[in-house]
Amino acid sequence: MIIGVPKEIKNNENRVALTPAGVAEFKKHGHVIYIQASAGENSGFSDSAYANAGAVILPTIEAVYEIAEMIIKVKEPIASEYALIRKNQLVFTYFHFASSEALTKAMIERDAICLAYETVEKIDRSLPLLVPMSEVAGRMSIQEGAKYLEKPMQGKGILLGGVPGVNPAKVVVLGGGIVGTQAAKMAAGFGAKVTIMDVSLARLRYLSDIMPANVTTLMSNHYNICEAIADADLVIGAVLIPGAKAPHLITKEMLQLMSPGTVVVDVAVDQGGCIETCTPTTHENPTFIIDGIVHYCVANMPGAVPYTSTLALTNATLPYALQLANKGWKKACNENEELKKGLNIANGKIVYKGVAEAWGLPFEEVASIL
């Protein structure tokens, strides 16, 4: 198969979808790989490293899209890329269709085969291609939250871990999945007083067993959320419904419960956000303030640590990408239920229910296109 890796052009997205080691694996299986010039530079991988591994370097993004049968990316195509995508071209990337009606309709119109990292799902319902970036984003949410609690950043001026004789910050984490667990671990490591909330009592029991003493578990419901955020210094939104919009657990009215300078970090913003007032921001302009509350809503948080993120992501995606290349997308999806669940749009049809429901568009069973 002919595989293309374009340079990411979303604002401050520094990751790349394939490492030189990944190129070598594809070459071993007889595939041809085209990499856009400088695609890996910001992740620490030079064009010469790719060339030495067997890739062909192309000068422009247009050339990559034009020649490739399968495009491997990190982030969803942006508007300037829509016209480059061809009919029946397989695009394997994070799409997050439920947060963008324009992207959804564009991919239907382009008649592309859209296989989304975020909905590839194992039999135990875990999301193997979302996990590594969720781990990075969860840890980063505390790192960024701690920074924006500083007074020059319009925060309360609180040190997350406090010092002897001074209370640490109070951190509330909404969601006990991968993001929430990693966020709670990091906040606890800083020395903060942490409350992690979830709707699953079984998950809370598990978290109670593995978390240090400065982490408290709490059942997630409207009353408890209101109580918890009222004296919080940092709130992390970490709720995910695979392939669908995240529910709004904190409404605009609830901001009045929080004191000015409180920081909210909505890691779910690329799925619509679980804090109603959050809208996607960039690493260039990461925050805004509503009712005195500092909102950090960067939709590609791991892009700020591209070396770590690229290695973590490609460790997870490469085995699946090899199956797609070796067998073709139809055979690979027929033989692997995990990959089949990654199909979101194909042959001009939405084949993932959460995406269709998000925009009130027609849904087709995936069997109709396989």
Label this structure with key terms.
Rossmann fold; 7-stranded mixed sheet; alpha/beta; 13 helices; 16% strand; AlaDH/PNT_N; EC 1.4.1.1; oxidoreductase; Ala_DH; 370 residues; 15 strands
Largest sheet: 8 strands, mixed
- Work out the strand percent: 15-25%
What is the annotated CATH architecture of the largest domain?
3-Layer(aba) Sandwich
- What's the CATH first level of the largest domain? Alpha Beta
Individual helix count: 13
**Pairing-aware structural class of the strands and helices?**
alpha/beta
**Shape summary:** globular
Enzyme class: oxidoreductase
Pfam family, one: AlaDh_PNT_N
Protein name: Alanine dehydrogenase
Keywords: NAD, Oxidoreductase
Written description of the protein model:
There is one protein chain. With 370 residues, this protein is of the alpha/beta class. It folds into 2 domains: 2-120 and 306-369, NAD(P)-binding Rossmann-like Domain (Rossmann fold, 3-Layer(aba) Sandwich), CATH 3.40.50.720; 131-304, Rossmann fold (3-Layer(aba) Sandwich). Helix content is 34%, strand content 16%. An 8-stranded mixed sheet has the order 3-2-1-4-5-6-14-15, with helices on both faces. A 7-stranded mixed sheet has the order 9-8-7-10-11-13-12, sandwiched between helices. Strand 14 and strand 15 (349-350) form a beta hairpin. The two termini are 19 Å apart. 51% of the residues are buried. The mean pLDDT is 96.
